[in-house]
Amino acid sequence: MFRKLFSTAALAAITLAAGHAAAQADAKNFPSKPLRIVVTFTPGGAPDILARMLGERFTAAWGQPVVIDNKPGAGGNIGSDFVAKSAPDGYTLVVGTVGTHSINGALYSKMPYDMVKDFSPVTLLATTPNILVVNNDVPAKNLQEFIQLGKKEGKMTFASSGSGTSIHVSGELFKSMTGIDMTHVPYKGRAVAIPDLLGGRVTMMFDNMPSSLPLVKEGKLRALGVTSSKRAAAAPEIPTIAESGLPGFEAVSWFALFAPANTPKPIVDKIQAEVARYLKTADASKKLMDLGLEPVASTPEELAAYQKSEIAKWAKVVKDSGAKAE
């Protein structure tokens, strides 16, 4: 019996070692075919910008083409679910967001994927504050005037790029903290929402800074505040919402790279290492900072820990605000 147990243990050890060696060999040869990076929103926003930057870098580093696949809808759930159900070989990745990988689980009554169990964290790419922007015809010139206007006139509308996004939940947090009667108007992406904001069909939007800051600088939209605890380096002239009369208000967007669950760790580590090298270059850092994005390049383990804390944080915000996915 002891010989049988020993043989079984030895066989298991050999199998494990063989599997590890195979994974190392796969990582060494990775990638040997085109890659796909899924963006869960329409083109033009921060996730799309990051995906295209990474695609160019991967092609330059590895000599393989990279397909950027925009799959918008359901607050990012459609694209994320596609990746969750893809082969765990490193060839299909997703630029996850604070919405798709920390907020949606609390906001949607039924999720098509598990935000943690169905993914292998690769790296936290970047963070950015949202920016509260209004149509230029709104008479309020600062946040306090806007709050007073909202309480006096009543109903207002706030646009988002979809239910569950940080853009949506930032608005819900603002609504609950100010007591203003506000109606959420979800769109299939910020590219669809912005024209309505510019045209005055919606009152306001908590957009990602990379999307709206250029419009603010061009004078097409008015910025009333940023959602981070400190002023953004890309726009230090814009005050934070917290310092403008809503102490404790903070809602930071983040973007991270995820692979399907059970993707071999050597492959995950190879992708993470290449992303880290790229984000630390002066060119990538400057480009992101100019857009209002702060590069991070975390380890997979750091991303996993950060995601866990964010899930707990946003679950409370969603519960307290009473927000629901439309």
Describe the protein's topology.
Elements: H1 2-29, E1 35-39, H2 46-62, E2 66-70, H3 77-84, E3 92-97, H4 98-107, E4 119-135, H5 143-153, E5 156-160, H6 166-178, E6 182-186, H7 190-198, E7 204-208, H8 209-217, E8 221-226, E9 252-260, H9 265-279, H10 282-291, E10 294-295, H11 300-321
Parallel strand pairs: 1-2, 1-3, 5-6, 5-7
Antiparallel strand pairs: 3-9, 4-7, 4-8, 4-9, 4-10
Helix pairs in contact: 1-9, 4-11, 6-11
Strand content: 15-25%
CATH topology of the largest domain: D-Maltodextrin-Binding Protein, domain 2
Query: How would you state the average pLDDT, rounded?
Result: 90
Q: Which structural class do the helices and strands define?
A: alpha/beta
Q: What is the name of the CATH architecture of the largest domain? A: 3-Layer(aba) Sandwich
Number of domains: 2
Helix-strand sequence: HEHEHEHEHEHEHEHEEHHEH
Instruction: Estimate percent helicity.
Output: 40-55%
CATH class assignment of the largest domain: Alpha Beta
Largest sheet: 10 strands, mixed
Family: Belongs to the UPF0065 (bug) family.
Protein name: Tripartite-type tricarboxylate transporter, receptor component TctC
InterPro entries: BUG, Bug_dom1
Keywords: Receptor, Signal
Task: Give a quick set of tags describing it.
alpha/beta; 10 strands; BUG; 11 helices; D-Maltodextrin-Binding Protein, domain 2; 20% strand; 326 residues; 2 domains; ten-stranded mixed beta sheet
